[in-house]
Structures are given as structure tokens and as C-alpha cells.
Amino acid sequence: MQKNLEIYLDNLLNWLQTNFLTPNAITQWVCILFGVVLVFSLGLVIGPMFRRWVKASVSNEFLRSLFSVTASVTHSLTFFLYSQICISFFVMKDDFPRWIIAASDLSIAWVAIRLSTYIIPNRAISRLVAFCVWGLALLHIVGLLGYITSYLQTMSLSMGGNTISVYGMIKGLILAAICLQLARVISTFTAKRIETSHTLSPSLQVLINKLINIGLYTAALLFTLSSIGLDLTSLTIFSSALGVGVGFGLRTIFANYISGILLLLDKSIKPGDVIELVGVFGTVRYMHARYASVLTRSGKEYLIPNEKLITNEVINWSYSNTNVRLVIPVGVSYASDIHQVKKIMEDATKGIKRILRTPPPLARLSGFGDSSVDMELCVWIADAEDGVGNVTSEVLFNIWDLFKENDIEIPFPQRDLHIKSGSLG
């Protein structure tokens, strides 16, 4: 046992002398240490200055987070550039800078991990990506990555007229994840920029965002397929047959998607409109690919499929004009002076800020009921998205108070019973 231990220690010492204690290796470690100290010192000076500049000059939240991530990888990028310069000098001397190359690979791996953490919001997936990146960097440093890559390339499977290796499939999955995440980040950034534009209407903003999303994700998919060596033309027949099957299975989803695009093109319904549909009255907040979000005054948010907005009858209170007329019915006693009632009802709208003065409020006689003279008060408002029932309630409160002050009676249904004498005999 002791003899085996001595052999292991001798082998370890020989390995250290061969790899770490040679003049070439010691020179490399000195270069690496000097680079780390240099980069760290520059970071202490430049880092706070850069953060102060970002805080003072950049107001966009997305750009701020992007700059912060860039600042966090500046050390690694600077060390990578420094290591490349050192590698060039060693190559000019016909030396192989093994440890500087390893340090350079680790710096790039750290950059990849930081960027993937920023792009991927899910912590579990970002940790998995970090583990894979560190593993690839370690395999590359010890020289096993090339052998594993060659072995995976020999393993393949046929799909139609295409032959795809296991290595190509793994590379395709990685590229797909990266491209889709980049498409998501770019889509989020452009959406925020478009939403802040005052020259585009809300419907046009949503339409442009949808077209950008379609273009980005389609480009990401095509780039991934072509990068793994897949001939896209050979997939035409397969994709046609698959499209027919998927079309039947996902008919409703596609109908909602196309309906959403049509609604945005004809501008019949757009974000900010006040609509009424099948007992739902509220403001359109968002228009997504499959549904529209309608927020009611009670706080309920209805997710209405776009197809229903196309096929059903929809009342758009703010389609061509935001002005909305409210008709408030009021009944008074037959003993009342209806001319005085008309004036009182119109006066009841004074002091209510949401009621427009043009067109002016107008009270009118609508009919003669069984128990009351039926009057109507017509008022106009320009902000139906803030509710209509609250305006009606405020007007009715004022009418009640004014009727009480002027002794005007609001009747209720009643019947008089007349009994003739002798009818029971």
C-alpha cells in the first residue's frame, strides 16, 4: 500500500514538473496572474465610472439592464483580448501556451454563461446552460472535446433524403434554444420601442409587433434547420402533409390568429376602445395573437377569442367618436309641471365634470305612462372607458335632491278600487 502511494506521489510530482514547473509554464502563469491583476485594477477604476454614466444617461430599463450585463462581462472580454495578445507572442517564439489558452477559454465560457443568464429568465434552465458551458470548456481544455465531437459525428440517422448525425442534432437543439431566446429578447425590445412611439396608432403598434414576432421566430427556425445541414427543399412534401393535419387539428387557433390580424388591419377594434359584447362591457387593454383582453369596471378581465370579435355583433362605443350619449329615464307625477321638471332635470347635470356642455344636456318628454309622465334626460360624455353607470348615478342623485326641494313627486304604480253600492246584494 505504501509503495503504491509512493508511486502515485512520484507520478504526480513528475506531472507537476512537466506541466507546471517548466520555465514555459511558469512564464504563462506569470502572464495569467498579471492579466488578472491588470483587469481587476482597471475594473475598479472604470466600473464605477461606467455605472454612473449609465444611471445618468440611460433612461430605458431594457438598455440599462443590457449595459449592466455588458459591464459584468467586460472583465472577461478584456482578459480574453489580453490572453490573445500573449498567445500571439508565445506562438511567435514557437512555444505552445497551453495554460493561457485554457484561461482564455474559461473567460469566454464565463461570458457565455453571463449572457445566457440574462437571456434565459428561468433559473433552472440558465443553470443547466451554465453547467453545459463549463463542461464544454473543461473538455476543450483537457483535449477531449475533439474526440467526443468526432465520435458523435459518426453516429447518424436518416430522415427522408437527409442524414443527420447525433452531433448535428445536439448542435441544432443548442442553436434553436439560442436563436429562439434571441428572437424573444429582440421582440421584447422592439415591442417596448414601438409602444413608446406617438406616431403609430395602437392597432398599428400591435400589428407591427405581431409581424416582427412572426419574422423573428421564422428566421430563427430556418437558420437552425439550415445550420445543421438539413435540406429545406426536401421537407416541402412532408411539411404540406403535416400542415393539412395540423390545420384541421388547430383550426380554431389559426382562425383566432387570422381574426386578430384582420381586426388590426381594418381597425374595427383596437387597444383602448370601449366595447360591449354578449353582456361584457369594458375597455380593450391588449390584443394578442389568440385573444383580446377586455377589462370591465368591476375589475374582471375577459379574454375573448378574436374569432368571436369577428363573427359576433360587437358594440364599439368609441369606434369613430369617443363621445357617447346616455339616456336617463325619469318618471314624475301627472300633477307636476313638466316644464319645470324639464328645467330641473337639465340643471341636475351642472357640476358634473364628465358631462359635456356641447352638445348640451337635454330633457324631453318621452310618453305618458300608466302611473307617471315619462321623461328622458340625454347627456354626452367623452370617456366611456371610465364607466357610464357612475355618471348616471350622480345625475339621479342630483335629480332626487332637486325634486325634493321643489316638491315634485316621483310616483309609484298604484290602483284605485271603486265599489258600487248594492253590487254585493
Describe the structure in your own words.
This protein is an alpha+beta fold. The protein folds into four domains: 24-143, no CATH class; 167-233 and 242-257, no CATH class; 270-316, SH3 type barrels; 324-405, Alpha-Beta Plaits (2-Layer Sandwich), CATH 3.30.70. The protein has 13 helices and ten strands. It has a five-stranded antiparallel sheet. Strands 8-10-9 form a three-stranded antiparallel sheet, with helices on one face. The chain has a two-stranded antiparallel ribbon with strand order 1-2. Strand 3 (274-277) and strand 4 form a beta hairpin. Helix 3 packs antiparallel against helix 4. The chain is elongated. It starts with a helix and ends in a 20-residue tail after the last helix. The model has no long low-confidence stretch (mean pLDDT 76).
